[in-house]
Amino acid sequence: YVFDEVDTGVGGAVAEAIGRKLREVSRHHQVVCVTHQPQIAAFGHHHLHVSKAVVDGRTHSRLNRLDEPARIQELARMLGGRKVSDAAREAARVLLQEGSGSSPPR
Q1: Could you read off the pLDDT of 66-100 as tens digits, one per residue?
Q2: CA–CA separation, 57 vs 18, rounded Å?
């Protein structure tokens, strides 16, 4: 299944519920989800970062698989903006732990 910006118009608790449902679906099906909500992204098994750049008038897209430190950094950026704080990184770590099921839900 492919979900493109499934988070449109939602936030907080609803985004978390969507993330939990996607995680459940992913137990038996491949799921690809494009999201800007860290509450949804935290439930992913793997994270990819998509970036675009214009070079000589042509748009180039790049897709990178994120390792664990990069996953934390990207979720922290989603939480706090361009300048990532230690508090945002810690919140990202907690989201990833909760999303993976390694700690009880909030």
Answers
A1: 999 999 999 999 998 888 999 999 999 999 999 88
A2: 38
From CA 60, how far away is CA 52, in angstroms rounded? Answer: 6
Query: Could you tell me which residues come within 8 angstroms of residue 48 by beta carbon, excluding any fewer than 6 positions away?
Result: 63, 64, 65, 66
Q: Which residues pair with 63 in a beta bridge?
A: 50
Domain ranges of the chain: 2-100
Residue 106: per-residue pLDDT: 37
Tell me the β-bridge partners of 48: 65
pTM for this one? 0.82
